[in-house]
Amino acid sequence: MTLSLNGGPEDRAQILEGVLDRLVFAADSSDFVVARLTVRGRREPVTVVGSLPRPHPGETLVLEGQWEFDKKFGEQFRFQNAQSRAPSTVAGIEKFLASSLIKGIGPEMARRITAKFGEQTLEVIESEPEELLKVPGIGSVRAGTISQAFREQKSIREVMLFLQTHGISTTFAYKIFRKYGNQAIDSVSRNPYCLATDIRGIGFRSADKIAGSMGIDMRSPMRAHAGILHVLDATQGEGHCFYPRGKLLEKARELLGIEAHALGKTLDQLVRSGEVVVEEDRVYPPVMARAENSVAVRLRNLIASPRFLPPIKMEAAVDWMQRRSGLILSTAQKQAIAEARSIKF
After folding, report:
1. How many structural domains are present in the chain?
2. Treating both helix axes as pointing N-terminal to C-terminal, what angle do 107-117 and 90-98 enclose, rounded to 10 degrees?
3. Which residue, 48, 49, 110, 185, could crosslink 97 as a Cys pair with Cβ 3.0–4.6 Å?
4. Could you read off the pLDDT of 64-98 as tens digits, one per residue?
């Protein structure tokens, strides 16, 4: 069945629900798939294209996306978000078990299991795996393996559903699951801002939206902590090694809407924990503090080393460097070079 989310133009997101029939293509290096979906009311399975982590034939999928027409492959549904549900029909359960979900279970064994337990098969596998011993060909080891594999798949579905409920796309939800595993719900619930540092592609603003959907107080120390680090990190992209304390707190106040004195306390905590470095009034990310100190040591050693070359003509040397590198130095950069030559240690 297909229906528009908003009842508007065709290019708006639509919902497509059906049973995964088979995988046509699954990328090795990502979760991109091309699959065939059996949809009620359509004679032939529908081709669906998008990111789908660990799909298994037989499971029910609810996809959000748009219809498109490919010149080579024809009509297909390209989805941006997906929710997976355990199969509810006997045929779906049989297909689900016969997929690559559980090593050692093929079509014949899947048929035997579903013939014995019918629509209660998945409940038996999860809660009463010892009942599987009643199926010919299943011993205690295989029964345990089947039950464990199913519980792992159920855990994945629960994590994905939780993350998508809070506005996280399928692609990022799978990245989060790969990072935290079965602890994903607990980790994200305790501190959604960890996503900004742990998951490539999720920045502070995205993590802040997720935190808001979870009801995190906008004045919480957790948010202040993440916001200050975000502002400080952004200064590196502007070419700065540090930020003056006052300016850093003002930028953070503008971003977060938190009073300056509360942000000051959070900054002091960051200093004590070693997450930032403060020298006089300068606030550094630790990596930039180490880099700046390393440069200073190297300059001192270079200046103190014996000189066997004739004096350098600064203007000629700078011109030569610019021609060779293709870089054009600013007046301030040229002045810094001149001052570095004159430093006495």
Report:
1. 4
2. 150
3. 110
4. 999 999 888 899 999 988 888 878 889 888 888 88
Asked whether the beta carbons of 232 and 248 are under 8 A apart, the reply is yes
Q: For residue 40, give Cα distances in angstroms to 19, 46, 49, 280.
A: 9, 10, 18, 69
Task: With beta carbons less than 8 A apart as the criterion, state whether 56 and 99 touch.
Answer: yes
Between the two ends of the chain, the Cα-to-Cα distance in Å is 77
Domain contains 30: yes
Domain membership flag for residue 300: no
pLDDT given for residue 5 in this prediction: 35
Give the number of other Cβ atoms within 10 Å of residue 153's Cβ.
19
Statement: the pTM of the whole predicted model exceeds 0.85: no
In whole angstroms, what is the distance from residue 317 CA to residue 332 CA? 16
* Band (3; pLDDT cuts 50, 70, 90): very low
Q: What length is written for the chain?
A: 345
Helices (H) and strands (E) counted in the chain, each on its own, are: 14, 9
Range of the domain at 17: 1-85
Is position 188 within any domain?
yes
E strands, 154-299, in order: 243-244, 277-279, 282-284
Confirm if 182 and 158 have CB atoms less than 8 A apart.
Answer: no
Domain boundary among 17, 52, 85: 85
Regarding whether 66 and 48 lie in a shared domain, the answer is yes
Beta strands in the chain (DSSP E): 2-4, 14-26, 32-38, 46-51, 60-70, 74-85, 243-244, 277-279, 282-284
User: CB under 8 Å to 93, separation ≥6 — which residues?
Assistant: 58, 87, 114, 119, 121, 122
